[in-house]
């Protein structure tokens, strides 16, 4: 499991646990890491305190609609483990049987308090959840599909020709996005959420262009997709650091157009990529001349939140 597996073993070695695990939505590129872990680690759920997850079955129950069996997320391990995870058992049943799932719908405008941490839920709203009341079509996530990049264009060219087109994926629209607050410090996690939903959620909690959300860092939406970050959203946020999480291939995401939109709005900021080679592929020398205050944080950067 690579770095993820190393992290799990480090948690074990230190006799720690994952107090709160949030599975944002049902796309494969978000759930497969967990299912692989569960398949190969019989004691996986022993390390987990509480899971927040809007499963398909739970959404159908919430809207009092009959479930569609094809929508269940299935685990297919190669062997039987002593925790009872066998072929054909759903992910939601696994966490339910382990007693770690809240089995409550998570939606916009909720406030969840947990061990001194406060979560302000920005997305999904009711319509985002209701859009999943259908048979889900399998699709290859944009984060792992191969397509020409937009990296050869300069940041200035992207800014000059910028045109926002929004993400229409119902799966992404059901993403759990939230502001995490700890000891007065805010961190913004946008999952793959739709920007108009995030804007509505921020407005609900009192954040506007005149009263921006000030945060330590922002985990950018949908791996830095140009379809999930618009100027209207950026104008509600003030942060020194923006985190781009992707599969590292550079074959699809992040979009340079998204980063250009961000830089044009903020001018001075730091970017963190979970793969350090991406910055070299994306930005040219001319880009750094145009934006001299752009900083790329090193891969070993420590996100330390000072009181």
Q: Which features characterize this protein?
A:
12 strands; alpha/beta; 307 residues
List the helices and strands and how they pair.
Elements: H1 2-13, E1 18-22, H2 28-40, E2 48-52, H3 56-62, H4 91-97, E3 111-114, E4 117-123, H5 126-130, H6 155-160, H7 170-173, E5 177-182, E6 185-189, H8 195-204, E7 213-214, E8 217-219, H9 231-234, E9 237-238, E10 241-244, H10 256-266, E11 269-273, H11 278-282, H12 285-290, E12 294-296
Parallel strand pairs: 1-2, 6-8, 7-9, 8-10, 10-11, 11-12
Antiparallel strand pairs: 3-4, 4-5, 5-6
Describe it for me?
The model is unreliable at 74-89 (pLDDT under 50). The strands form three sheets. The protein has an eight-stranded mixed sheet with strand order 3-4-5-6-8-10-11-12. The chain is α/β, with parallel strands linked by helices. It has twelve helices and twelve strands. It has two domains: 2-97, no CATH class; 111-296, no CATH class. 29% of the residues lie in helices and 17% in strands.
């Amino acid at each position: 499991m690579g770095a993820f597996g190393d992290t799990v073993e480090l948690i074990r070695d230190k006799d720690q646990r994952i107090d709160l695990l949030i599975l944002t939505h049902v796309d494969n590129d978000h759930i497969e890491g967990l299912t692989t872990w569960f398949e190969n680690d019989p004691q996986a759920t022993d390390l987990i305190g509480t899971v927040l997850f809007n499963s398909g079955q739970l959404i159908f129950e919430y809207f009092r609609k009959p479930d569609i069996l094809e929508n269940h997320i299935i685990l297919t391990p190669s062997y039987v483990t002593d925790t009872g995870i066998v072929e054909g058992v759903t992910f939601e049943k696994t966490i339910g049987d382990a007693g770690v799932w809240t089995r409550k719908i998570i939606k916009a405008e909720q406030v969840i308090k947990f061990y001194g941490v406060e979560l302000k839920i920005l997305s999904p709203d009711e319509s985002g959840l209701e859009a999943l009341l259908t048979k889900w079509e399998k699709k290859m996530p944009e984060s792992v599909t191969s397509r020409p990049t937009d990296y050869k264009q300069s940041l200035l060219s992207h800014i000059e020709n910028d045109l926002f087109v929004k993400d229409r994926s119902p799966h992404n629209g059901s993403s759990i996005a939230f502001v995490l607050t700890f000891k007065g410090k805010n961190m913004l996690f946008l999952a793959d959420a739709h920007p108009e939903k995030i804007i509505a959620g921020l407005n609900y909690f009192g954040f506007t262009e005149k009263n921006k959300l000030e945060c330590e860092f922002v985990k950018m939406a949908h791996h830095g997709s140009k379809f999930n970050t618009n100027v209207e959203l950026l104008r509600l946020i003030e942060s020194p650091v923006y985190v781009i999480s992707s599969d590292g291939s550079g074959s699809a995401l992040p979009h340079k157009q998204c980063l250009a939109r961000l830089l044009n709005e903020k001018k001075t900021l730091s970017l963190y990529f979970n793969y350090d080679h991406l910055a070299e592929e994306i930005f040219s020398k001319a880009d750094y001349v145009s934006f001299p205050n752009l900083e790329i944080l090193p891969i070993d950067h420590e996100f330390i939140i000072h009181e």
